[in-house]
Specification:
The protein is mainly beta and 300 residues long. The protein is 5% helix and 44% strand.
Length: 300
């Protein structure tokens, strides 16, 4: 494999985070108790990376005009700002420089995108054996203002369930037909990504918390982001989106920062806090989840 495929790993007991700076500064995998939880595209792993020939790479999803590398990455919202229906190449498939590194933290920074005039910095910090953070920063290097949102997209091995707790459960169909795979419960929306059926839905996120359960009896993961406030506007209307692939064995949990108009030289920041715990040992679950019995029941 080329240098583009060289990974960096952070480890604390049973939790291992793998970064792939050479292709979009990705969080390439989360491994917990020896189990890999994120999707890495088997058709692309180890392939030569020529940013001028990305369309030549193999794919089982020709409806998407970009390579589905895998892992978690920072995209720029809204997707209507993309060129040719694909995320900005320099930010999604380009090599990031490792600008800072320690035993518990890796910071990776992209080149300035020649199309959007944006750059992305991603700092991943392993906090404990059950928690980590991702800090995204997008800077406008152009000569004029730019409407921008940070869009974290995490590709998760299926089967998995993704849920958001809310008092008045509602969701928005973006495309596809989820059928019974997306369901309303008394106090939550649940997306059951159990098979290959392409759909995407948008969800409110009033508490700023998204819960993921992996497989049958697998670990649980929660992502916490700042709670929405009244004046927040999101590039895709909703702060959380769930996508399920009809071609590969993965789904996506997607989180959006509030949209902002960046003036030249300004930076937009977005932080995600993650925690993970085993089903047999819920002691590391946050109180907001462990005390919400109805939410856990519908996710089980």
């Amino acid at each position: 494999m080329s240098d583009r495929w060289v990974v960096i790993q952070l480890t604390n007991k049973d939790l291992e985070l793998t970064m792939l700076p050479g292709i979009g500064g990705r969080l390439w995998d989360v491994t917990f108790e020896g189990r890999s939880l994120l999707f890495q595209n088997p058709d692309l792993v180890g392939q030569p990376v020529d940013e001028k020939k990305l369309a030549d790479l193999p794919t089982r999803s020709p409806q998407f005009a970009f390579p589905l590398w895998g892992g978690e990455k920072s995209w720029i919202a809204p997707d209507t700002s993309w060129t040719g229906g694909a995320p900005f190449i320099a930010l999604d498939s380009g090599a990031y420089r490792v600008t800072s590194r320690s035993n518990s933290e890796v910071e990776m920074t992209s080149a300035v995108c020649p199309v959007s005039q944006l750059s992305v910095t991603r700092r991943i910090t392993l906090k404990t054996a059950h928690s980590w953070t991702i800090d995204h920063a997008v800077t406008n290097h152009g000569s004029g203002p730019r409407v921008t949102g940070i869009w974290s997209v995490m590709m998760i091995d299926t089967p998995a369930k993704i849920g958001v707790s809310m008092k008045d459960p509602t969701f928005q169909t973006v495309f596809g037909n989820a059928g019974t795979l997306v369901s309303k419960h008394q106090n939550c929306i649940l997306a059951d990504c159990a098979g290959k059926n392409e759909f995407k839905v948008g969800l409110p996120n009033p508490n700023g918390e998204t819960l993921v359960s992996f497989g049958q009896g697998g670990p649980w993961m929660m992502c916490s982001v700042p709670q929405p406030v009244q004046d927040d506007h999101y590039s895709h209307q909703k702060p959380v989106e769930v996508f399920n692939s009809g071609d590969y064995d993965y789904c996506e949990a997607e989180w959006h920062s509030p949209q902002a108009t960046l003036l030249p030289g300004e930076t937009l920041r977005f932080q995600q806090d993650f925690c993970i715990w085993a089903d047999r040992d819920p002691s590391n679950a946050p109180n907001s989840i462990s005390t919400n019995k109805e939410f856990l029941s519908c996710m089980s």
